[in-house]
Amino acid sequence: MSLKLRMFQSGKIGKLTIKNRFVRSATYEGLAKEPNGEVTDKLLKLYQKLAEGEIGLITTGFSFVQENGKAFYNQIGIHKDELLPGLRKLVKVVKDRSDSRIFIQIAHAGRQVFPDFAKSRDIVAPSSLTDKLTNITPREMTRDDITTCIRNFIAAGRRAYEAEFDGVQLHLAHGYLLSEFISPHYNQRTDEYGGSIENRFRIIQEIIRGIYDETDKQFPVTVKLNAADFVKDEPQLTITDSKIIARMLIKEGIAAIEVSGGTYESTLLGNYTPSRTKIKSKENEAYFLPEAKVIKREVKNLPIILVGGIRSKAVAEEVLEFVDFVALSRPFIQEPDLVKKWQQSISTRAECISCNRCLFEQGGKGLRCIYMEKIQKRKKRKQQINAK
Ligand SMILES: Cc1cc2nc3c(=O)[nH]c(=O)nc-3n(C[C@H](O)[C@H](O)[C@H](O)COP(=O)(O)O)c2cc1C
Predict the structure, then answer these.
(1) Ligand 1 touching residue 30 (CB < 6 A)
(2) Taking every pair of C-alpha atoms in the chain, what is the biggest distance, in angstroms?
(3) Of ligand 1's atoms, which has the minimum distance to the CA of residue 328?
(4) Would you name the residues annotated as active-site residues?
(5) Which of 26, 31, 41, 90 has the fewest beta carbons closer than 10 A?
C-alpha cells in the first residue's frame, strides 16, 4: 500500500473540505479595469490556469473595500454592488474547471499606498505617522472614518458571500490598514481603537462580527495575520502580541489563520519583508515557520496556513508536520501547474528564484514572471540572430 503524502491529503477550513494542502496565497494581479477594479478577461484567464493547476484553495489578490483603501492601479474592487457580476464570473471560471476552492482577500491599504498612486488621494491610517519607506504621512482616521471603514469591510464580506466565493480572507498583514491597527508601531491612538491590545483589535472584532451577521456562520472568514512587523524602530508588533491576537480571533469564530510577517518598512531592516529574496537552499525556505509554530501551539485545532518561501516538495511536506496548509505566491506565477507537477513527480522544486521582479517591475502590464520573460526574450533574439 502506498502512503499518500500529507500535502495531497484533503483538509478542512471550517466546514469546507479542501482537496489538498496547497493554498495560493493572495497575489495582486494588476489586471482589473480602472478605475473601479472590474474583473477582466485577463483576470479570468489567470484564475482559469490556477484552477486547472489542482491548487486546493486559491486566494485572490487583495481587493479594495473602499475608494481610499485602494493601494495600486488595476486592483480588484469589491466596494460596490455593481462589481458583483464580474466577481461571480471569477468564481465560476474556477468552479467550472475544478473542485478547487476560491476565497477573496479584502483589504484597505491604510498608509501603504504606492507613492505615485498616492498623489492627491486621501491617505488614512490609525495615526498620522510618516512611513519611513515611502515618506507618506497619512491623515489620522476620525471615529466616523472608522465606522465607515467597518461598514465597508462588512459590505465587502457580504458581496464575497453573494458572489459565491467559498470564503473571505481579511488582510491583517504586511502593514496595510488592519495590520496597522493591531500594531503599536502604526497605531498610537488614545481612544478605544488604540492603546491596549484589546483596543487595537476592536476594529477587526467589529468587522468579523458584522460579516457573520450579514452572511452566516458557515461562511468561512479567515485572516492573513502578521506574526511580527520586523521594523527597525520600537514599538512594534511582536509574536507576543500576535499570539494574543490569535486567541482573540478564535473567540470571534475565525476559520483559519495564514501566518505572515513584515511591512513596507521592513525593507529598511534588510531581507525581512513578506516576500523575502535569496531563497537558495532548504534552510532559507518556510521563513515564517518559527512564528507559525508558536501560533499553532496557541490555537491548537484551528487550521494554520504557512506562507513565505516554500519552494521545494520536501520542505512543503516537512512543514505539514507543524501546520495544516502551505501557501505559495510567487512560484504559482510562472508555474500555476506546480501542484500537478509535484503530484506527477515531474519536478520537486519550483522554478521561482524569488527575485521579486514580479512585485516591482509589472509596469502596468499585470502579473507575470519577469525573470522568465527576459530569459525567453534573450533566447528568441539569439535564435533570430542565428537564423540570419
Ligand atoms: C507580486 C506579488 C503580489 C502580492 N500581493 C499580495 C496580496 O495581494 N495580498 C497579500 O496578502 N500578499 C501579497 N503578496 C505576498 C504573498 O502573498 C506572500 O505572502 C509572499 O510573497 C511570500 O510567499 P512566497 O514566498 O510564496 O511568494 C504578494 C507578493 C507578490 C510577489
Answers:
(1) no
(2) 72
(3) 26
(4) 176
(5) 41
DSSP string, 100-120: -EEEEEEE--TT---HHHHTT
CB 99 within 8 A of CB 79: no
Q: Is the CB of 61 under 6 A from ligand 1?
A: yes
Asked if 167 and 16 touch (Cβ cutoff 8 Å), the reply is yes
10-residue stretch averages of pLDDT, the chain, 388 residues long: 85 98 98 97 98 98 97 97 98 97 98 89 97 97 98 98 98 98 98 98 98 94 98 97 98 98 96 96 97 96 98 98 98 98 96 96 94 91 87
Question: Domains in the chain, please, with CATH?
Answer: 6-387 (3.20.20.70)
What is the residue with the minimal CA distance to atom 9 of ligand 1? 26
pLDDT at 2: 54
Q: How many residues does the chain have?
A: 388
Residue 157 burial (CB < 10 Å; 0-12/13-18/19+)? buried
Nearest to 184 by CA among 249, 143, 231: 231
The answer, yes or no, to whether any atom of ligand 1 lies below 6 A from the CB of 226, is: no
**What tens digit of pLDDT does each residue of 208-244 get?**
999 999 998 899 999 999 999 999 999 999 999 999 9
Please give the helix or strand (H or E) that residue 259 lies within, else none.
Answer: strand 257-260
Q: What DSSP designation does 138 have?
A: P
Note whether 31 and 40 are within 8 A (CB): yes
| Residue-wise DSSP of 323-358 | -SEEEESTHHHH-TTHHHHHHTTS-SB-S-----HH
3-state secondary structure of 157: helix
Round to whole Å and give the CA distance between 354 and 372: 12
53's CB contacts (< 8 A; 6+ apart) are 332, 335, 336, 337, 338, 339, 340
Distance CA 50, CA 60 (A): 10
Please state, in angstroms and as integers, the Cα–Cα distance from residue 356 to each residue in 258, 361, 383, following that order.
21, 8, 28
Q: For ligand 1, atom 28, name the residue with the nearest CA.
A: 27
Ligand 1 and 330: CB distance under 6 A: yes
